[in-house]
Design brief:
- 32% of the residues lie in helices and 18% in strands.
- The chain is globular.
- The mean pLDDT is 96.
- The longest helix has 15 residues.
- The protein has one domain: TIM Barrel (Alpha-Beta Barrel).
- With 256 residues, the protein is α/β, with parallel strands linked by helices.
- An eight-stranded parallel barrel has the order 1-2-4-5-6-7-8-9, surrounded by eight helices.
- The chain contains nine helices and nine strands.
- Helix 6 links the parallel strand 6 and strand 7.
- Bound molecules: SN-glycerol-3-phosphate and magnesium ion.
- The site of magnesium ion (MG) has 3 residues, from strand 2.
Length: 256
């Protein structure tokens, strides 16, 4: 049975270490954070790597599309300098490498399937196939995605692993009047997910109560203000994603 913590370190602990890196996982673990959220996508030659963007440009010393770059090239890049000199030279991890570290640090994982466009099914299949060989702690694993095809594929590969549907506002341009997909309940039913992982801008009290009524867990991303986290928790939110998970954890109403 899924055992969610109250706080999940977003992309590791993105306020303190470069996102989606082994250094970020250790940083979260050292702060007493029990779970991290990491994004997985495939290289051109189908290696699952932990990486957020479609292109290498923002966070590495390389450039171009991840989907068109083989792992042999990606593994030579560094992904720390953009963040700070003290992280210069660190590497983009594979899923396999982070799983090793998570097991060693006894941490839970929310793996977000973040496929390059057109690779929704393959990414989920490759990531879950890899996990199935190494990951025993199914209470400490949540597979999530914005992509319905990825969640369908995850269900086909490992029906009993907990899945979460990610929801961003339907109308990205107007953050003050964020609109949730009106069909979220039907989609959640169809994909057989246990959690709804919604953007902070969608997390008003009424929506949260509707999600709880639908017997789904509610997770909210990305919450960096501890007062926001407390309010969300008082409304029944189960868990928040944060770049500063230590600050959130220190200020929650309840931590268990
Ligand atoms: O899974 C929550 C959150 O990570 C979704 O947005 O863009 O940070 O991957 P993003
Ligand atoms: Mg993510």
């Amino acid at each position: 049975m899924l055992k969610l913590p109250k706080v999940i370190g977003h992309r590791g602990a993105a306020a303190y270490a470069p996102e989606n890196t082994i250094e970020g996982i250790h940083t979260a673990a050292d702060m007493g954070i029990k779970w991290v959220e990491l994004d997985v996508k495939l290289t051109k030659d189908d290696i699952p790597i932990i990486f957020h963007d479609e292109t290498l440009d923002r966070t590495t010393n390389g450039s171009g599309l991840v989907a068109e770059t083989p792992y042999d090239y990606i593994r030579q890049l560094e992904c720390g300098s953009w963040y700070g000199d003290s992280f210069a030279g660190i590497k983009i991890p594979t899923l396999e490498e982070v799983v090793d570290v998570l097991i060693e640090r006894d941490m839970g994982l929310n793996l977000e399937i973040k496929p390059c466009p057109g690779r929704e099914k393959e990414t989920a299949e490759a990531a879950l196939d890899m996990l199935s060989h190494y990951w025993d702690n199914h209470d400490g694993l949540l597979i999530s995605s914005f992509q319905h095809v990825s969640l369908e594929a995850a269900k086909d590969v490992a029906a009993d692993w907990s899945r979460g549907l990610l929801l961003a506002p339907e109308n990205d341009e107007d953050i003050n009047a964020a609109v949730i997909n009106p069909n979220w309940k039907d989609i959640a039913d169809y994909l057989d997910v246990k959690t709804l992982n919604i953007a902070h801008s969608l997390a008003d009290r009424e929506t949260i109560e509707e999600i709880i009524d639908a017997e789904l867990k509610v997770l909210v991303y990305t919450v960096n203000d501890p007062m926001d986290a407390r309010l969300l928790q008082s409304w029944g939110v189960d868990c928040v994603f944060s770049d500063e998970p230590d600050v959130i954890l220190a200020n929650l109403l309840t931590v268990h």
